[in-house]
Every structure is written in C-alpha cells, then in structure tokens.
Amino acid sequence: MPETVQLAEYLFTRLKQLGVGSVHGVPGDYNLTLLDYVEPAGLHWVGNCNELNAAYATDGYARVNGVGALITTFGVGELSAVNAIAGAYTELAKVVHIVGTPRRNQQETRALIHHTLLDGDYHHFARMYEHVTVAQTDLIDPRTAPEQIDTTILQCLIQSRPVYIQVPVDMVSAQVPADRLASPLKIPDVISSPDADAAFTAILERIKASKRPMLYVDGESRAFGMADDIQKLVKETEWPTWTSVFGKDIVDETLPNACGMWQSNYSSKEELAYIGSADLVLCFGPHFSNTNTYFYTTIPSPEKTIFFKGTSVVIGDRIFRDLPAKAFLSALLSKLDLAALRQQVTAENAFKRPAAQSTALPSSSELTNQENFYRPWTEYLHTGDILLAETGTPSHGTRDITLCPHMRYFSATSWLSIGYMLPATQGAALAQRELYEAGKWHGKKPPRTILMIGDGSFQMTAQELSTIIKERLNVTIVLINNDGYTIERCIHGIDEGYNDVARWRYLDAPNFFGIGQQPNGGEYVSETAKVRTWSEMKTALEAFEKSEKPCLRMIEVMMEREDATKALKALMDAQKLSSAKKICTVSCSNLPTTIAASPLPGQAALEGTIKSLLQHQDYSAGTNEETAQRLRRQQDHHQQAANMPQDLFKWEEGGVLKHHCPICQTPLSHEKCRTICLGSHVEWCHRYHSLFRKNWSSRCQACKNTDEQHEKRHRQIAEVLARIKKHKADEELAAMQLMMSPITPRTPRTPLTSKALNSVSGPTPPTLEATKITKKERKVAKKAAKALERDKVVTTADIELVAKTLHPEPEKSEEMAETELAESEEHLDIKHNLRFHNSTCNSKSARHDYIVKERGGSVLLDDQEIEQLLGAFEVDPTAIGKEGELVKELVEAIKSDLVHFNDELAMTARNRAGFWRWANKRAYRDLMENGKEWSDKHNKEQNSAEAEEERRGSTATLETETEDDAATSRSGSIDTPSLTGSAGTSLTVPSSKPSSVKKPPTLSLKIPPSKPVADADGWTAVGKKVLTPVKGTLKLSGNGGLRHFAQKPKGQFGALSFADVVKDD
C-alpha cells in the first residue's frame, strides 16, 4: 500500500471496508470532482431524482446493509436531504452523509457565492446538521483528515445514527497518509464496567424469582446488535414474547411462543390478561414514542421491567451504565441456564396462546376492504422477503401479517414522514440484491421486496419509481387507491378537500418512466393489475407467487375512501359522533337515540353508524347506570384535557441550548453536556432562564430585567406612600396654623344700598406695568416651580420596607435551613420532575400530573387582605378626597406588583420543572452537596464573582465627582472582567446632578502596557481570546454597551461603552 493516497480515495476505501456497495446522491457543482472517485473505488453510484429521495433511499439501504452513504452538494442539496437525515437519526439508521463544499479560500475570504445565504458565513448548514447527526467534521487539513474520517464514522457505528462529513472542493485530491487503511474500522472492545457484576446479580435474582415472565422486543435491539441473542433467548426459554411495531421483524413469528405485536386494547383478552399479570418483563431496545406504543399504553410497568438499552440496563430506580447492549446480553446468556428457565414456568402459569385467525381470501365478488386485506398475504411471503408499509392505513393493516423467518419489516414508527417508503424500497431492494449475490442473504429463492403504499403517499415521491426501473430491482408495489389521505381523514377533516389528492392513472407509471410492458428476452419488464374484488385479488396474488424473474409489479387495489382498519376506524367514528351532536341527542336514561329531522349531507349514513354503535353497547336495564357513569367520566376527562395545555413545557427547546460550553466547546444541546458540563463547566441562573459559565450566572440579563422591574414597582409604591404622607403632613400643618391664628369677631351684614356703593367707590387705581423678563430667567423660574411641586425623593430604606411588607420572608436559623431544605416545596418539585423520562412518563395521565404541578395559580386578593396591607403601611383605607384618590392609586400599584410577582414565580416554577426534567441526577446531586448555598444562589453569586475579581486584582474603583462638592463623591467597585486583569483601574463618572458645564466630562481609563493575564485554559474572564494591550488613554462615553464586560451600575449614569483611543504623545 502506498504511503499516501488522495483524500477521496481514502474516504471511499473506508466505506468499502465497512461493506458499503452503493452510494446514493445527486450531483452538484461542489461534489462533481468527488463523484469522479466513486466507481474507481469499486462502489456503485445510484443517481436519485432529488436529494430527499436519495436520503430516504440511503436510510433504507443502511437498515438492510448495516451502513449507507449519501453524497449531496453544499446548501441546496444538503438542506433538501435534512428531513430524511432527521428520520434516520430518530429511528437509528447508520447513514454517512458526505457534503461537497466550496473551496477553502472562498470560505476563508467569506466570498458571496451561490448556494449560500450571501452573508459570508459558510457554517449555517453545518450547524443545522448538529441537531440531526451524532458527529460532524470538516476536512480542511490533509494531515488530520484520515483521523477525522475514522473518528466520525466510528461514532456512526457506535451510536447507530447519521454522521456528517464536509469535503471542500480543493481537498478532494489532496494527498493524505494511508497507513490507517491497513486496519479496518471496528467498534472498540468492551472495557469492564464497575456496574457489570451488580447488574448481573440483580437480573439473575429477578429472573430466578419470576413465576410469570414475558419478553418484550422493541426496534432499537437490532440497531445495537442484540437481534441474534434475543432470537436465541426466545427460542430456548419458550417464554411468551411480544414485539412492538418497530421490533416486529426481530423475532421469528412462526415460533409457538411468539405472540406477535402487543397492540394494547386491540390484543386478545388472553394476551391482555397475561401481560397484566406478568411479574417480570425483559424489555430489549425500548423505543417508546407515542406511535410505537399505541399512545404509551404498551409501555411495561417500570416496577416489574428490566430495560436493556444501548449502553445501559435499567432496573427500577437503578441505572447500570457503560454496558454495551450486544456484549452485555451475550455475557448474560452465558450465565443463564436456558433449559432450566424453560422449566421455570409451570403449566398453570404458562400462556395459552389463542388460535390464529384465518389467512384465507374470501372467494367472492365482494369489494375488498382494509380489515381483511392484509392477513392473507401471510401465505404468499417467503423467507428473505422485505415488506415495507407506508405511513397510513398500510402501516396499520400489515401488523396482522405473520412474518416468515429472516424477513425484514419496515413500518411507520416515530418520524412518520409520508413518502419515505417508496425511495426506501429502492434502497432496501438494492442492498438485498447485493447481499444475496454475495451469499449473505437468507432464503433459496431470489428475494423480493414488497411495498404497500397509499395513493397520497405514492404521489409524494413517485419519481423514485424511475430509479427502481433504472436499477432493475425485483419490487412489487401494492398501491391502495382510496382517493386521498385516509389516515389524515381519520385524524381530522373527514370530508375536507385538503385531504383529497389528484386522481392519477397509476398503472401507466411504468410506461411513463421508461419500461416496456411485454417481455423481450432478458429485459426488465413490468406486470400490472387492478383489483376491486376478492376474486380479482386472488388472481393477482397467484400471479405474484408464480413470478420468478426480477421485474416491477404494480397492483392497484381500489377501496372506499372512508375504509380503514379497526384502530383507525375508531378515530373516524369518533369524528362522526362529534359531528352527530348537532343532529342527534344520545341519552343513557332515555334510549333509543333521538335524531333531529333536519336533512344534512350524509345523514342516512350517519344515522346508521350511530345505530350500529348503540347496538354494539349493552344498554339493558342492568347496565344503563354503568354506561352513564362511564360516559360522564369520559366527558369529564375530555373537558379536563381540553382545559390543559397541549403538552409539557420543554425547557431545552426554548433556544437556551444553541451555544457551546465555554470550557470544553461541547454543544449545549449534546447529551455530553448533561453528563459532564452541567454543574462543572456551566450553571443555571436562579430563575432557570439559561446556562452560563460557572460563577457567571449572576450576569443573566433576564434576571436583571426582572429585578429592575420589580424594584421599579416597589419604587412607584413608595412614591405613592410618600405623597400620601406629604398630603397628611400638609393637612396637619394647615390645621395647626388655623388653630394658632387669632379669631376676630364677625360683624353683622347690612344691606348694600346705592349710598353705600357710592361711599366705597373711589378713583380707579393706576395700572402696574408688567415687568419684562428674559427667556433664560423664565426657564429658571419654570424649573424652580417644578422643583417645588416635585414629590419627596424616596430612599432605599423606603423601597426595602415596601418589599418586606409585600413579600415577607420567614426568618430561619442555619440549623432549620439545613434540615428543612429536603422538605421544601422547591426541593420536592425538583425531585418530582427529576423522575420524569420521555420514554416512561410521557403518557397523557402522567403529563397531566406534571402540568398541574407546574401551572401557577392566579392571585386573588380580597378586601380584608388589602386592608391588612394598607394597615401595615399606616394608610387609612376609608380616606376620601385627594387622599382617597391616592389610596386608590396605591391599591392598584400593590395589586399590579403582586400579580406580576406571582407571574414571575409561576414562570420560574415552570422553567425549574422543565429544567429538571431535562437535567440529570448528577446535577441534582451537585445541588444537594452545595446545600443551602444554592437556595440563596442569586444573593451569593455576586459576592463570589467580586471575590474572584479581587483575587485576580482587577477590581475597579468607581468615583463620581460633582461640580458643587467633590467631597460628596461616591466610590464603589464594578465587576469588569474585560479589563484584562489590570489592577488599580480608575473610572471617572459624570455626576447625575445638573451641571452648568456644557461639555460633559469623559471617562478615562489608563491601560497599562503589560500583557493581559489569561486563565489556565488560555481564556480571559470574558470568555474571549486574550485582548491585545493598547498603549495610551482609552476614553469611555456615558452610554452604550460595556454591558458585555461589566455589571450595570445602579445609578442614573447608565452603562459604559468604549468611545475611542487617544494615543499618548
């Protein structure tokens, strides 16, 4: 092997070593040179119709082959594929997404080129992919590129999720070291975990004590390599085994103890009885989404379940970590006596499996229907076939099919992107053919890939049929034509036009995409059939069974637009019953149903549905009361659910995790943040707004704004109180002056006659001329008048008195604080939300419990409470006149403050609950270890920050000098970590009082020429790179944005900001 190879050769050689035989994608100008190396590396290039379809196909290929590779171009190409990559992330498919990017010099110079947002930032799209891939890398250095490729792909293998690799155009042919290619990539060997022995002991004890055990197999088992060991366990123990939708194809359903899928209330009575009475459940690869668990009803009880996850085992409240699933399960089976486990379950405790339902097709001319269409396919499937069921009615109907050994089954699990299955069929069929030709596929006959898809889903990605034809894949497409999105009609809008689709001639699609109808030698052909009745369906299935050569088969099955499986029909009937409330009234005490006479569209069909549902219920005299109670409970439950929020508040989705850890640069949204960074590198503010660097949470701007608004409301209340006191003082002074003034006797009134008028009249006094004043004197007089009218300025003591009166805090000793911390309401709320887990607690009832706890109650103040508060302020609530108006203003201000304060508490409670549902128990332990220090976190953080700054010698002195009296200048300290650790820095701040000087004084800061001091990690306290020292005087203005560098001082002068630098002479 040569010492160096080109980068593209290295990348594709690695994919080839992992078993990748084909690469999907779409050519673009930034990946064209990269594509030149695909086929020379021995890989097959599959050009898809668009990037979304290519990513869907890669997902399907990866699920069958183990790993898949996708190549797109920068920007427009990768963003088109991101939906499918997110689906692969959700459902654990190993996809390596390779993106061709612009040249490095274009990125470094921030060139404004096409396929960008024209802002010079070339990392927008990579940051988007951070959320849907487990590892990302940008190959910009030939020396490290091989290691980057290996590390990224290894994360794909370990975590079974997509990864993202960027290859600049000018790096494609760069020479890189080739020595690493001599060792194929493999998952590292297991390192013995300290939890392993304890986990083995706990599991063996639970198994030994069990009398009615069961196995529950979910879909993540295959992704983490447990499938073979699970199959061995099922076969050897003969314990009753159920699967989820995602895990249906992991267990051989032909085994006598394989009971199929656990379908909640749609399972048989015998199954529900045994599952409910089981004392031990071994659950493998849990994937507890709502659609995979029948809306959380098939999640086994945690008290009797052992969960085998990807890297851990959960037993009750105990989590045993660092136990890779495949290695741990193999080791566990070696410790078990499987033959003895088979005898452990007695005959009376054994599960009696109900008789299987018939799989025969009705031989009649009746129309086909959803309820009986899928089960007969059991007789026509072979070992090694792949069955795919698109989101909608096919994904529900195919659950009744019994799979043959070594079949693969794809169904809607969690992502549910309509249109996924047709491109995934192309990828799965291609991987199936490659493995069969290599002798690595099960079955003697050439395997087939069968897709069952609705007409609406087919129209989403129909163009990928051309890729199936181009690749000559052995695919059968069963298209359910029910005139639109029936699955959406079942959910909502049963008669709405937005659930309709255009009517296509589907069987003409093979011709349109370039295939011939008649066989011509060994050419790839298509076979089509349209089915309306059961007899036509039987003919089509027999032809399907006889076909041996690879070809494209299309069977169009015509069904009614409102026909659905049992579970979906229940949703549709619920819609009809909801609409029926307008035309009929159902009374449990007075049956039968009374139906209104107003003619409405479809009323006859609606009446028939209601009558059939009423007949299905037992409304005999003995059960009327029970039925009435049940309906009332349902009505109360729906009303309660309608009044509740739609879902729990998710703290992590509020944009608080969009940054990186300031210490280790880990994205805060990454799982590593919760296990390593939280509590060690970053911390939360006391109102749980966001995460901050350790000891920096006191800088939370949202907390500062809340405190400022709170103080502003208290100041307003204090000012009203001051005006009331001033009004009382004025009245008392006026009364005192009236009492002290001499009283003169009143002379009697005499009638005013004309003589008297003449006696008092006299010459008119001369008119005084108005004194002329200047404009400046008029302004001074106006200011003086305003100053006289201005209220008394409230002091800090007045504001603190208002705060203590409205929001009193009980005094506690240190001993009481330590003992009562564990019993505090906040502590209990944290423990309550800490137990939350999306997989096990996110049911409707559980969510209701959590939502009730985090919902804040409204403030209700009666007159008695208002009078008590006014009495505390020594205010008369019965005052009238001007004082009464001031009292009313005071009451409104108090109410406003209490309402806002309660809203703040409710918001903090909501944030705290969401935070602890997201956080882990390690952060909680840190909280408890710090004890009451955390309960008073907000008050102590400032002190700790100041102490840290004092230790570094960077405390600044704030000196405020006024023009009238320099002796009254105030001095204090401001936390200024941006000042690069310089000691003895002096800031001169202009006075807040009016000054006669026209030009305000500037803020001057002497910057020493010494080099800034950085922390041990190479960062200053600001979190930025070390500042370059500036020689000279740095002048600061009195407004602007030094808020990033210092605490906002509490005064009238505002924040500080840089102005300019004046060089010394």
From TrEMBL:
**Enzyme Commission designation:** 4.1.1.1
Q: Mind telling me which InterPro entries this protein's record contains?
A: DHS-like_NAD/FAD-binding_dom, PDC/IPDC-like, THDP-binding, Thiamin_PyroP_enz_cen_dom, Thiamin_PyroP_enz_TPP-bd_dom, TPP_enzyme_TPP-bd, TPP_PDC_IPDC, TPP_PYR_PDC_IPDC-like
Leader sequence range is none
Q: What class of enzyme is it?
A: lyase
Amino acid composition bias (Low complexity), ranges on this chain: 985-1006
Every copy of the Thiamine pyrophosphate enzyme central domain together lies at 202-336
Q: Please write the reaction equations for the catalytic activity of this protein.
A: a 2-oxocarboxylate + H(+) = an aldehyde + CO2
Q: So which domain of life are we looking at? A: Eukaryota
For this entry, list what GO says about its biological process.
aromatic amino acid family catabolic process to alcohol via Ehrlich pathway
Compositional bias per record (Polar residues), positions renumbered to this chain = 969-984
GO terms of molecular function: magnesium ion binding; pyruvate decarboxylase activity; thiamine pyrophosphate binding
Which UniProt keywords are given for this protein, alphabetically ordered?
Decarboxylase, Lyase, Magnesium, Metal-binding, Thiamine pyrophosphate
Per its Swiss-Prot or TrEMBL entry, what cofactor is needed? thiamine diphosphate
GO annotations of cellular component type? cytosol; nucleus
Residue ranges occupied by any Thiamine pyrophosphate enzyme N-terminal TPP-binding domain in the UniProt entry: 7-110
Ranges for region Disordered? 934-1017
Basic and acidic residues biased stretches:
934-953
Q: Where does the Thiamine pyrophosphate enzyme TPP-binding domain lie?
A: 407-551
- Indicate the family of this protein: Belongs to the TPP enzyme family.
Q: What is this protein called?
A: Pyruvate decarboxylase
